[in-house]
Structures are given as structure tokens and as C-alpha cells.
Automatic annotation (TrEMBL):
Keywords, comma-separated and alphabetical: Cell membrane, Membrane, Transmembrane, Transmembrane helix
Keyword Cell division among record annotations: no
A GO molecular function held by the record: transmembrane transporter activity
Entry membrane topology: Multi-pass membrane protein
Gene Ontology CC: one annotated term: plasma membrane
InterPro entries: ABC3_permease_C (IPR003838), Macrolide_Exporter_MacB (IPR050250)
Localisation per UniProt entry: Cell membrane
Protein name: Putative ABC transport system permease protein
Residue ranges crossing the lipid bilayer per the database entry: 18-39, 278-307, 335-360, 375-398, 426-448, 460-481, 518-537, 751-780, 801-827, 847-867
Source domain of life: Bacteria
Family: Belongs to the ABC-4 integral membrane protein family.
Ranges for domain ABC3 transporter permease C-terminal: 286-405, 758-877
Length: 884
């Protein structure tokens, strides 16, 4: 008998039962194909952008490393200009332009400005078609790129401004800078890819009120010139130009490299490889997870199929089919499923990538090339589908070949498998679990050790250990999952209305431990991964917030204390709490010199509602100072300097005799020049009544005070920048760094978590398909059971309910094990990555998020059981009992 008839028999007996397994293959393949195509689109877009920026030039010299600065004129020493002039004298060189770089901004009527974008000199060495208006001709005209029009909403006639803020050398504390401005009118739009930018005439660049920095030298050659020869001549010329310059300038100039446009593209693509690699790692990593889960689903599907068709296989053996033919037919069935599922996955993945690239072009990346199918993605998709299904069908194929012809004499259906776990499986599972999770624990605990005994980086050890340990858990799952399901059924049986169905469902799960474990394992992978990311993100957020609280215990501070500010802070949704403290003018003297500032009188009550840590107030003889006092040429050096604080006053007021000495510690959250002290640091006579109007030199008033601010919980990164305009309405002396950093870190973690959860959703979806598929196939084994239950009085609703309860029990077992693993792995993952000696990583369990995970998983399991439950409930007693 040939293999083809056996395959046809298998396919007829399987029918629609392979559809769900094929869907699992298609989703997994689609995931990876979409990732490959988006990576290809990103790479092509980046290449086109770099090529467009280099177009029009034959050779380019990146001069951004030239940083020589004239201290007298406070302008860049543009050594690139002289070099460009020398290059233009060489044979074969048509044009050599030294391009500078500056910034223009949009300035509103109230004087506020947007973040500027880069402008450079308009040059014939740059290719770009004017799509609107005309090229810049006058010194006050600017041409902007199409990206500036699309991304910034600019249009012809708009005004852009170059601003320079100048502080006078003898300006006193709090003096406002002089703003120098030059306006430019948008007269044209040039079609170029990349970030928003503008182009000025040479006169327009000279008109910018600040020194423009070197950017690049663009060289255009004569048509007959040999590019390689000219490139070599320029490279030899550069050291000659550096002769006679001071050492630092000479070193920077000599380090310049002449590159062709092709070399520029290759170099800049290499610089951007990190972003591309991140995309590749995400696609491969999460795609692999999805493939692993689908492999479990496919293997489980084929095992149940082989078991359910035992009589058919036995009859084939009885009429002459060999064990090899049965094995080959099962493998061919898997290969066919893999090819069909892989092809469907390629189509789905290509469609998803195309849809995402269209959305990206319409929203945030207008120049991104459309994601189109490639030969590589197609081959990988089809090959992956084929390999995964064939490997997943291997064990079921071996079991199919072992079916005896005598099985044709027995009633069809599954023979209950033994609940006992083989000794080899138990030993291997225990070893892998202990070794793997031991490595995870070692990575978490030893990552911060001074004499780190780990040979490899701690995160790598942790990831490898987690994979090994999880494989061990999957091997041991057969020992854990079926009993859990059975116990869960008995517990549910205590509820009214479930006293019969729930224990039966639990016992059914225990009777077929292989199928039960395989089904729960698919869910276990998804639940563990999602839970680990949730716990890890929450723990990382807590660690970062704790460290931010140490560095920025007060998130914002402003050098004002008045009723108007209090009213604005009370009305702002960005502010959670605030408190104020009075100050007094002082002279601060340290080891480097002295400066005039203000000392603010604080105590524990000042920080009670605004500080993220406790015990922040300085004690007697202590002070908290602004780190700007430790800047170059300022007051002190070192971490805990000794400072002398002298109050303002006259000789008759004995101000000099009232000076106090304090040991200071710097705080990054204070406005420039501020010093915080407690009453215990004051002279005894001033300590008694520091807030009285006649307290002498140490008289603390609201005019010299400070207000401390704690931001509202949950504000976004964009919202945190709203504190600055609020503070600027009152003074320029403020510090909002802590608020911005806290909001930024929280938002970044939430964004990463959202992206990862969406990606992991693919594996969970595949797992749910596996649950539905397994339960659908189990209906074949339970027709006689369902018929018997109906015959003894159980109604259709109760029979269907039994299937749903079994699905929920399997999901519950996966959730219990997965949640425990996720708490451990989430903590260990953060601990191994946060390898800072003084950081303490304490696990933070996001109970609400985990509760949502439980709810979604149980709901998905119930929905997956819907069709199988309905099918089994429709089995008629007579028809079911009449089957062999």
C-alpha cells in the first residue's frame, strides 16, 4: 500500500479538526513575516533617507567633531571653511562647500518658542526639487523641507526666528538676559526626506545671531574626475591644513575622514543598526514565543487525532499498511498543514505589515516605504510553517506507527493514559528546573556583587536560566496540572448547581493527563510571559521611582513664596501638594570663594506632604545646597563641604558675628544658589524668634522664601512640561527636573509594557486556539460518555457546562502556576538588569493588572469552550450509545 491512500484516509478522518491547528501555524508565521517585512521597510526607508541627504555630492566630510571655540568672541573657529577653500583648489573639484549648522524656532506673541529645527546653507551640492515657492535669495529668506511642512505645519509666508540669549558679565543675580533675534520668512518648500530642516543663503547663515557650528563639507567633482584619486588627495590635504594649529584643533582636524556617498550611506546605516536590531530582536523573540506555543498546540492536536483514529489506523495495519507508512502519512499530514498554514501566515503577515506601514505613513512616518512581500520573508514563512508542524507531528507519528492491528477489535476512543510520570522525565524535569531557576536566582543576587562571580552578563544568565527552568516546569507539568484541575473541580463542586458537573470535569481532565497538560502548557507559556512582563514593569517602575525619590525627593521647587503662586498651584491639576518656607539673604563662603544667595528655614513639617522620602530636613549644623554652588569656579568642591553662611546686615547689626558654619550636601532638586537650613543651625539669639520682623540679621521673610511642589500622580511626560510655564509666570528661579524625569520614566515603562503585551497577545491567542482545538477533538472521545449522562437524566445544558468548566479548570491551573513563576521571574529579571550596588530591588506585584490577566484568560477559555460544549450537548443518547 502506498503512502498516498493512507494520507487521504487521515485527511478525511481529520476534516475540520486541523483548521484550528492550521490557524495557530498561520498566526505564528504571520507574526514573524510581519516583523521581517516591517524591518525591511524600516531599513529601506532609512537607506533612502540617507541617500537623499547625501545626493548631489560626490564626497562628504563630516565636520561635526570640530569643536574649537574662541573664548574672546565666543564663536566657533571654523577650520572647516579654510579646508573647504583648499579642497576647491584641487584638480577635479568643482565645488567644495563648508556647511554650518544653526537652529530656527517659531516664536509666539507671548515670547515663547517651539523647539527649533536645524538649518544649513543652501548649496548646489545638495539635490532637492522646490515643490512650492522658490529658493532662498535674500538674507532673510528660508526654504524648509517637506518634513517641516508636514510635521510642523509650516507654510509659505510663516516667520521663523533665530534667538540668542546673552547674559552680561556683570549682571547681578536674577538678571534677565538680552534676547537677540533675527527673523526669516519661509519662501519655499524643498522635497527632501528625513527630519524637518531649513536652508539659508550664505548671507542668511552669517546673519544668525549666534555662532553656527561645523556640520559637513560637501564636495562636487568635475564629470571627468576620478573620485577615488580626488578622495585620496583630499585625505592627504587634511593633515597639511592641520599644521601650525594648537594640538587639540590639529587632532580634531586631522581626524576628519573623506567618504563617498556610498560610504556615507553604509556608515550611517551602521550607526542606525541598533534601532533595526531592536526591531529584529522583537520580531524574532516574540515570534519565537508564538511559534513555541503553536508547536505545543499542533503536537497536542496530532496526539489527540492519532488517539481518536486508533481503530482506523489498526484497520489499515490489518489490511497491509506498515508502521513506516502510518508514520510517513502522519508526517505528510503535518507537512501539508504546515505549508497551507505557512502560506496563509505569509499572506496575513504581508497584509498586516502593509496595513501598519500605511498607518505609519498617514500618521508619523510619511516617507516610510510600503511594506511589500519579499522572497526572504516568504521562504522563511513557508519554511517555518513546514518545520514547526513536521517537528510537532513527529512524536504523534511515532505513536501512529506503534498502533497494533489488534486495536481494531477494541471500541474506538482513547484509552485513559497512566497518570504516573516516567522516572527519566521526572529526573530531567527536576534537574532542569533546579539548574535553570538556580541560575536565575544567582543572576539576581550576584549581579551587584563587587567581585561578580558570573562569567556572562547577569541578564544573559538570567534569561538562559529562565528558559531552562521553564522547560523543566513543562516536563513536570504532567505531575502538577491534572491534580490541580481535579482539586479545582472538587472545590467548584461545593457551589450550588455545580455539584455534579464540576467534579466530573475535573476527573475528565485527570483521566487524560497528557492532553490536559499539553493544553494547559500552551496557556501556561502565555500567562507566564504576560505576568512576568507585568510584574517586571511594576517592579522596575517602583525601583526607578525609589531611586528618583532618593535623587529628587522633592520633584519641583520655585524660589517664590506668595499668595498668587499658592492660588495657581491649588488650581493646577499637575500639582498634588505644595508647601512654602521663608528665607533670608546670606553670603555663602566655601573653599573656592563666595556668592550671594538666600537661606531658607525648613523643618520636617515643610516636607511632610511634598517629599517622597522621610527625614529630609537638615539637622543642626547641616544644610541642603544647590549643586550649582559646586560648579566650576563657584563656592565649594567635594561632596560634603563645610560652608559659612553670613546674613546680610551692617556692622552695627553684628551680622558678621551672626555667621554660622554648616556641613552641606547637594540636592539636584533645588533652584540655583539656594541653601536650606533648620532653626537648630542658627545662633542662639536668632533661633528663638527667626520669623519675627525685628529678629536682626537672621530675619526670614516670604520675599526670600521658596515653595516646594509634589506633582499629581499619573501625569504624563508631556503634561510635566506644563509646570515650567506655570512657574515662569512668577520667577525664572525654579527646578522641575524631578517632575519631568518621574513622568518620563513612568510613561516609558507603561509604553514598553503596552507594546510587549500586544506582542505577547499573539502567543496567548494561539494558546486559546489550542484550548478550543483540544476540547473540540475531545468531543470525539466523549460522545459515549455524553450519551450515557443524557440517558441517566443530565440535560443538554449540564453536558455543555461540563466542557466549559474543564476549560476553566485548565486555565485556572495555568494561571496559578504562571502567576507564581511570573512573580519570581519578574523580580529576578529586574534585579539582574538593575546591577547597581546601592539599589534594592523589592518585588512589586500589580494585583489589579494580574486580576485583569486572570479575568481575560478565564473569559478566553470559556469562549474557546463555547463551540465544543455546544457540539457535545447535542449528542443524542441513542446515537451516542450505538457507536463503537
Amino acid at each position: 500500500m502506498s503512502g498516498s491512500p493512507v494520507l487521504r484516509v487521515n485527511l478525511r478522518s481529520a476534516g475540520k479538526k486541523l483548521v484550528a491547528a492550521g490557524a495557530a501555524v498561520a498566526i505564528s508565521v504571520a507574526f514573524i513575516v510581519a516583523g521581517i517585512l516591517m524591518l525591511d521597510s524600516f531599513t529601506r526607508g532609512l537607506t533612502q533617507q540617507i541617500e537623499a541627504e547625501a545626493a548631489g555630492s560626490d564626497l562628504i566630510i563630516d565636520t561635526m567633531q570640530l569643536s574649537a571655540w574662541d573664548e574672546d568672541t565666543e564663536e566657533y573657529l571654523r577650520d572647516d571653511i579654510e579646508l573647504a577653500e583648499a579642497i576647491e583648489e584641487l584638480d577635479g573639484v568643482a565645488v567644495a562647500d563648508a556647511i554650518g549648522s544653526g537652529y530656527l524656532s517659531e516664536v509666539s506673541a507671548d515670547g515663547s518658542s517651539t523647539i527649533g529645527f536645524e538649518v544649513g546653507e543652501q548649496s548646489e551640492t545638495r539635490v532637492g526639487e522646490i515643490s512650492q515657492g522658490h529658493q532662498a535669495q535674500a538674507e532673510d529668506e528660508v526654504v524648509v523641507s517637506s518634513a517641516a511642512v508636514e510635521g510642523r505645519g509650516l507654510q509659505l509666508g510663516d516667520t521663523l526666528t533665530a534667538q540668542n540669549f546673552v547674559y552680561e558679565d556683570d549682571a547681578g543675580e536674577g538678571a534677565e538676559p538680552t534676547v537677540e533675534e533675527e527673523d526669516y520668512t519661509v519662501v519655499g518648500v524643498v522635497d527632501t526626506q528625513g527630519a524637518p530642516r531649513g536652508f539659508l543663503t550664505a548671507e542668511g547663515m552669517d546673519r544668525i545671531p549666534f555662532s553656527t557650528s561645523p556640520a559637513e563639507i560637501r564636495v562636487q567633482l568635475d564629470p571627468s574626475a576620478d573620485a577615488a584619486q580626488v578622495q585620496a588627495q583630499i585625505q592627504e590635504l587634511i593633515p597639511e591644513q592641520a599644521e601650525g594649529l594648537e594640538s587639540q584643533r590639529a587632532a580634531e582636524l586631522s581626524g576628519l575622514e573623506v567618504q563617498t556617498t556610498e560610504e556615507i550611506v553604509d556608515a550611517r546605516m551602521a550607526e542606525q543598526a541598533g534601532s533595526a536590531n531592536v526591531l529584529a530582536y522583537l520580531a524574532i523573540g516574540f515570534g519565537s514565543i508564538s511559534v513555541f506555543v503553536s508547536g505545543l498546540v499542533i503536537s497536542n492536536t496530532f496526539q489527540v487525532l492519532v488517539a481518536s483514529r486508533q481503530r482506523t489506523l489498526a484497520l489499515l495495519r490489518a489490511i497491509g499498511a506498515t508502521a513506516t507508512q502510518l508514520k510517513r502519512a502522519t508526517l505528510l499530514e503535518g507537512a501539508l498543514l504546515g505549508l497551507i498554514g505557512g502560506a496563509a501566515g505569509v499572506v496575513l503577515g504581508a497584509g498586516a505589515a502593509l496595513g501598519f506601514s500605511l498607518i505609519a505613513r498617514a500618521s508619523f512616518a510619511p516617507d516610510l516605504p510600503l511594506a511589500t512581500p519579499t522572497v526572504l520573508a516568504t521562504v522563511i514563512g513557508l519554511g517555518l510553517g513546514l518545520v514547526v508542524t513536521v517537528l510537532s507531528a513527529l512524536l504523534p507519528a511515532i505513536k501512529a506507527g506503534r498502533v497494533s492491528p489488534m486495536a481494531a477489535l477494541r471500541p474506538a476512543g482513547l484509552t485513559p493514559a497512566s497518570a504516573r510520570l516516567s522516572k527519566s522525565r521526572l529526573v530531567i524535569g527536576l534537574l532542569l528546573t533546579l539548574i535553570g531557576f538556580g541560575a536565575v536566582l544567582a543572576a539576581a543576587l550576584l549581579a551587584t556583587a563587587e567581585d561578580d562571580p558570573l562569567v556572562l552578563p547577569a541578564p544573559l544568565v538570567g534569561v538562559a536560566g529562565a528558559m531552562i527552568g521553564f522547560i523543566g516546569v513543562l516536563l513536570l507539568a504532567r505531575l502538577i496540572v491534572p491534580p490541580l484541575a481535579a482539586h479545582g473541580g472538587r472545590l467548584l463542586g461545593l457551589l450550588p448547581g455545580l455539584r455534579v458537573n464540576a467534579p466530573l470535569a475535573g476527573q475528565n481532565a485527570r483521566q487524560v493527563p497528557g492532553r490536559t497538560t499539553a493544553t494547559a502548557s500552551a496557556l501556561l507559556v502565555g500567562v507566564t510571559l504576560v505576568g512576568t512582563m507585568m510584574v517586571g514593569a511594576s517592579t522596575a517602575q517602583t525601583v526607578l521611582y525609589d531611586e528618583l525619590a532618593e535623587q529628587y525627593p522633592v520633584e519641583a521647587s520655585i524660589g517664590v513664596m506668595d499668595e498668587d503662586l499658592d492660588a495657581d498651584l491649588e488650581a493646577s491639576s499637575l500639582v498634588g501638594a505644595h508647601s512654602s518656607a521663608p528665607g533670608a539673604p546670606v553670603t555663602i563662603t566655601g573653599s573656592r570663594g563666595s556668592t550671594e544667595s538666600q537661606a531658607v528655614l525648613v523643618d520636617e513639617d515643610t516636607f511632610a506632604e511634598v517629599a517622597r522620602t522621610e527625614g529630609l530636613a537638615p539637622g543642626p549644623g547641616e544644610a541642603i545646597v544647590s549643586p550649582q554652588l559646586n560648579a566650576e569656579g563657584m563656592v565649594f568642591e567635594g561632596e560634603q563641604p563645610e560652608l559659612e553662611l553670613t546674613p546680610y546686615g551692617t556692622g552695627s547689626s553684628r551680622a558678621g558675628e551672626q555667621a554660622v558654619t554648616v556641613q552641606a550636601r547637594a540636592a539636584a532638586w533645588l533652584p540655583a544658589g539656594m541653601v536650606l537650613i533648620s532653626a537648630g543651625s542658627l545662633p542662639e539669639e536668632a533661633r528663638m524668634q527667626p520669623l519675627a520682623e525685628d529678629a536682626g540679621p537672621w530675619t526670614f521673610t516670604a520675599e526670600q522664601g521658596i515653595t516646594l511642589v509634589r506633582t499629581a500622580d499619573g501625569i504624563s511626560s508631556a503634561e510635566s512640561y506644563g509646570l515650567a510655564p506655570l512657574f515662569q509666570d512668577h520667577t525664572e528661579e525654579f527646578n522641575d527636573s524631578g517632575a519631568v524625569m518621574r513622568a518620563s520614566f513612568g510613561e516609558t515603562i507603561d509604553m514598553v509594557l503596552l507594546i510587549v503585551l500586544v506582542l505577547l497577545g499573539a502567543s496567548v491567542l494561539v494558546a486559546v486556539i489550542g484550548v478550543s482545538n483540544t476540547l473540540s477533538l475531545s468531543v470525539l472521545e466523549r460522545r459515549r460518555e455524553a450519551a450515557l449522562l443524557r440517558a441517566v437524566g443530565m440535560n443538554r445544558r449540564s453536558v455543555g457546562q461540563m466542557i466549559t468548566i474543564e476549560a476553566l479548570l485548565l486555565a485556572g491551573a495555568a494561571l496559578l502556576i504562571g502567576t507564581g513563576l511570573s512573580v519570581f521571574l519578574g523580580w529576578a529579571g529586574v534585579a539582574s538588569m538593575a546591577a547597581v550596588p546601592d539599589w534594592t530591588v523589592t518585588v512589586d506585584v500589580p494585583w489589579l493588572r494580574l486580576a485583569m490577566l486572570w479575568g481575560i484568560t478565564l473569559l478566553a477559555a470559556a469562549l474557546a469552550a463555547l463551540l465544543p460544549a455546544r457540539a457535545l450537548s447535542r449528542v443524542e443518547p441513542a446515537a451516542g450509545l450505538s457507536e463503537d
